[in-house]
């Protein structure tokens, strides 16, 4: 919808007809807000919707919800569409095609069961179904499978609703996007919140009775569950594109150029694409709404006759689990070493405010730099109030290939209610400089 809106801004309805097909009932909404709606922190679903289909139609963009695109014919320049409510198939011609089918949640074979009580949280429809189940069934226990961003956010949501929550993660730590030492801090905090965190545990199946889930079967034994939430990540939703002969990259996402063009007259944006990592120089799949909106904007500008490019990503992400905040940018130590860098790292403990000021709480900051040059490769933060958004300063430094020595002189804001006289960012950079 970002692409559609940008194209419409540049070309009027008489010059460019725009039709958007959507499988579900909603468009242009914040999927990232679904866990907080489930947990009762924010209202929904209307509060999560940025623009309705009706608003787009008034702007000259014909949105057809509950329409599933089932085929793309590039030679004939048509798409085949199934009207799910009308029960009929139709064909729509195009001059320009934007493929923005997003990503599909990973669902192992054991999760593909007809029984009720097993949910993902990919769409607003998913969120509505989970809310209705929680309100109607009033389960006492929940199992969340997967300890990534969605997993920890859903664990928080269910704890907030008063359920007993077990979080199951196959690897040795939650939040695998941060280094092991930082993940260990997350694990400790998760358990302190009353969540039964089980790492190194593999899910083998589900137990059901009377058409409802009753337990999660693991190699460590069964775990009772009145509701199960699966957060095992996503894959680029590219089956239609691949069937049409469009090129896929090494990650399985659609391969585009800098202007989000796949081939002549075909554009792609969002979680169905792969993109370039500015630090590792590798192609990556990083499914985040920030990137999707920027890529859609670039595609829309270009197909509307303008010129724009997408500059790539550095993997900046933040999340929270109750009062715990976790943030990262750039490369982790493992990612840096896989890309061929020799690294030096430094980890420091500080506080969000001057230690004597009310509300001061600890935070841990880790920086990863290239050995020899001192160029900042990545940073991670685990803390509480006012911790996570400090990652933005690191993100700017990574984006601009600053060294940790450069960072030690940054003129950051200081006042006791906001930071110690030496901000944790500066302390971490100084320690990394010393380690070099």
Our measurement of the CA-to-CA distance between the termini, rounded to an integer number of angstroms, reads 47 Å
Q: Rounded to an integer, what's the Rg over CA atoms?
A: 23 Å
The spatial strand order of the largest sheet comes to 8-15-9-10-11
CATH topology of the largest domain: FAD/NAD(P)-binding domain
Number of spatially distinct domains: 3
Under CATH, the homologous superfamily of the largest domain reads FAD/NAD(P)-binding domain
Identify low-pLDDT runs: none
Q: Strand share of the residues? A: 25-35%
Give a written overview of the molecule.
The chain has 436 residues and is of the alpha/beta class. The chain has 3 domains: 2-24 and 66-104 and 235-303, FAD/NAD(P)-binding domain (3-Layer(bba) Sandwich); 107-232, FAD/NAD(P)-binding domain, CATH 3.50.50; 317-435, FAD/NAD(P)-binding domain, CATH 3.50.50.60. 25% of the residues lie in helices and 29% in strands. The chain contains 12 helices and 25 strands. It has helices at 2-10, 34-38, 53-58, 124-137, 149-160, 180-192, 239-243, 289-303, 333-338, 391-399, 404-408, 424-435, and strands at residues 18-22, 61-65, 67-73, 78-83, 88-93, 97-99, 103-105, 118-119, 141-145, 164-169, 196-199, 203-209, 212-218, 221-224, 227-230, 234-236, 261-263, 266-268, 275-276, 283-284, 317-321, 324-330, 343-351, 362-370, 376-383. A 5-stranded parallel beta sheet has the order 8-15-9-10-11, with helices on one face. It has a 5-stranded antiparallel beta sheet with strand order 21-22-25-24-23, sandwiched between helices. Helix 1 runs parallel beside helix 8 (289-303). The protein starts with a helix and ends with a helix. The mean pLDDT is 96.
């Amino acid at each position: 919808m970002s692409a559609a809106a940008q194209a419409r801004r540049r070309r009027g309805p008489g010059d460019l007809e725009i039709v958007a097909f959507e499988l579900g009932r909603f468009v242009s909404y914040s999927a990232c807000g679904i866990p907080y709606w489930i947990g009762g922190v924010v209202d929904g679903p209307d509060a999560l919707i940025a623009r309705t289909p009706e608003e787009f139609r008034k702007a000259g963009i014909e949105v057809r919800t509950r329409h599933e695109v089932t085929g793309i014919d590039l030679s004939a320049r048509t798409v085949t569409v199934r009207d799910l409510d009308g029960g009929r198939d139709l064909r729509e011609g195009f001059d320009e095609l934007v493929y923005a089918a997003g990503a599909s949640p990973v669902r192992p074979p054991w999760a593909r069961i007809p029984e009720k009580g097993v949910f993902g949280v990919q769409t607003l429809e998913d969120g509505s179904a989970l809310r209705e189940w929680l309100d109607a069934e009033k389960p006492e226990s929940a199992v969340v499978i997967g300890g990534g961003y969605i997993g920890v956010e859903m664990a928080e949501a269910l704890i907030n609703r008063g359920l007993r929550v077990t979080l199951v993660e196959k690897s040795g730590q939650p939040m695998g996007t941060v280094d092991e030492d930082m993940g260990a801090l997350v694990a400790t905090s998760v358990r302190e919140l009353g969540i039964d965190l089980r790492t190194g545990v593999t899910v083998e199946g589900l137990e059901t009775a009377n058409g409802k889930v009753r337990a999660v079967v693991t190699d460590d034994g069964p775990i009772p569950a009145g509701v199960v939430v699966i957060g095992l990540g996503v894959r680029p939703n590219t089956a239609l594109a691949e069937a049409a002969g469009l090129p896929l990259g090494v990650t399985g996402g659609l391969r585009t150029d800098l202007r989000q063009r796949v081939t002549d007259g075909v554009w792609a944006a969002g979680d169905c694409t792969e993109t370039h990592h500015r630090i590792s120089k590798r192609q990556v799949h990083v499914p985040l709404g920030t990137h999707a909106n920027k890529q859609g904007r670039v595609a829309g500008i270009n197909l509307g006759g303008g010129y724009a490019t997408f500059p790539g990503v550095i993997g900046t992400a933040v999340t929270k689990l109750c009062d715990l905040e976790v943030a990262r940018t750039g490369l982790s130590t493992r990612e840096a070493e896989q890309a061929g860098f020799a690294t030096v790292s430094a980890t420091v403990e500080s506080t969000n405010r001057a230690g004597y000021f009310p509300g001061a709480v600890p935070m841990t900051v880790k920086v990863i730099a290239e050995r020899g040059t001192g160029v900042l490769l990545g940073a991670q933060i685990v803390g509480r109030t006012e911790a996570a958004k400090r990652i933005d300063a690191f993100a700017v430094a990574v984006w601009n290939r600053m060294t940790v020595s450069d960072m030690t002189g940054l003129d950051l804001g200081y006042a006791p209610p906001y930071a110690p006289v030496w901000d944790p960012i500066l302390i971490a950079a100084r320690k990394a400089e010393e380690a070099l």
